[in-house]
Amino acid sequence: MVYHKESNDNKLTCLLCSYYCDLKDGQIGVCGVNKHVGDKIECLVYGHISAFNIDPIEKKPLYHFLPKSKSLSLGTVGCNFHCNFCQNHGISQEKKIDKSNFTSPKRVVDIAREKKCASISYTYNEPTIFYPFAKDIAVEAKKYGIKSIFVSNGFESSEVIDDMKGVIDAIDVDLKSFDEKYYKTKLGGNLNQVLNNLIHLQKNGIWIEITTLIVPTKNDSTEELTKIVKWIKENLGVNVPWHISAFHPDYKELNLPRTSFESLKLAHDIAKAEGLKYVYIGNIGYENNTLCPNCEESMISREYFNVKSYSLKNDTCSNCHTKIDGIFWKN
C-alpha cells in the first residue's frame, strides 16, 4: 500500500487515518508522527518502540480470540485523538521520538516466537498511525502462524481498513461515546466515521470486539448506553462482544469519581435486555464468564485477566453443542 496521495499546491495527503491530513513538505500530521518528506509521507516512529510487554490476550481485552494465549504487545508514541482520560497519555500524547534504538519487524517476530506468543498486539497508542510498521510485522508474523491484533480508537482510513484484510486478524475498538459533539471537542475524530469503520472492519472479515470506558457524567446515562447497545445490535449483530470498562481518574480528568459498579451493571443489564450475547464488565476484578447463549452453561471462566476454566470443544458448547462466536483453539 502507498500511504499517501498527491494533493494541491505540492501537498501530500496522508492515508493512514480518517483525518486525511493534507501536508506541506516538512509538515507533520495531527498524530505528531507522520511527516511529509520530499515525495512521501514518512512514518517517523517506524521501528521505534516505546512499550514492549507480554500480556494475556484477555488484557486487550479480547475474550473470544484465542483465549488463554499470550500476546506480544507493543506501541510507539503519538495519537490522532486527545482523550482527557487517556490512561496511556505518557505514550499517546508524547511527540518526542526516541531514536536511540531500532527494532526491525523480523526482530519483533523473533521475540514473539521465542516467548511462544500466539499473537502480536499493536496497542498502548493508536496503531493506525504506525500502520506501515505494524503491517510489516504482521506480514512477517504470518510466516509462522502468529496472529496480529489492533487495539484501536477505530479512526482508520478506509484505505487502511481495506489493506488490513488478511493482514490484521482481530481488533478491539474503543467506542468511547455516542455523542457526536463530545467526540469532536473532547476526544478527536468523529462518531459517525468510527461507526462506519466498525461496519467496514466487520465486512472485511476482521474479528471485532468493542470496549466502552464508562466515564461518570460523560457517557453513563441510560439514554446514551441504550443508543450504543442498539447500534451494535442493529449494525454489527448480537454476537459481537461488548466490554464495559471502569474509569479511574487519570491525565486531565482527575476530579471525576471512579465508575461505580452500579453504573457498570446498568450498562450490562441494558445490553442483555437488548439481546447482546456476550457482555463483560472490566477493570474491577469482576468474574467474567463466557456463557453459552443457548443453555447458559459457563464455557470460559475468568478472574481479572486469568482464565480459570475452559470447556469449549473447538468452538462449540460442551454441554449442548451450540456454536460460540469467536476464534478459538481447535481441540
Report the total helices: 8
Determine the fraction of residues in helical runs and give it as a percent range.
10-25%
Distance between the termini: 37 Å
Principal-axes geometry comes out as globular
| Order of strands across the main sheet | 6-7-8-9-10-11-12-13
User: Structural class per helix/strand content?
Assistant: alpha/beta
Please give the largest β-sheet.
8 strands, mixed
Describe the secondary structure blueprint for this structure:
Blueprint: E1 4-6, E2 12-14, E3 22-23, E4 34-37, E5 40-43, E6 51-56, E7 70-75, H1 89-92, H2 105-114, E8 119-122, H3 131-142, E9 147-152, H4 158-164, E10 170-174, H5 180-187, H6 191-203, E11 207-214, H7 222-235, E12 242-246, H8 261-274, E13 279-282, E14 290-291, E15 298-303, E16 306-310
Parallel strand pairs: 7-8, 8-9, 9-10, 10-11, 11-12, 12-13
Antiparallel strand pairs: 1-2, 2-3, 4-5, 6-7, 14-15, 15-16
Helix pairs in contact: 2-3, 7-8
Describe this entry's structure for a reader.
- This protein is of the alpha/beta class.
- It contains 8 helices and 16 strands.
- The strands form 4 sheets. The chain has an 8-stranded mixed β-sheet. A 3-stranded antiparallel β-sheet has the order 1-2-3, with no helix packed on it. A 3-stranded antiparallel β-sheet has the order 14-15-16, with no helix packed on it.
- A hairpin with a 6-residue loop joins strand 14 (290-291) and strand 15.
- Helix 2 (105-114) packs across helix 3 (131-142) and helix 7 (222-235) runs parallel beside helix 8.
- The two termini are 37 Å apart.
- The relative contact order is 0.12.
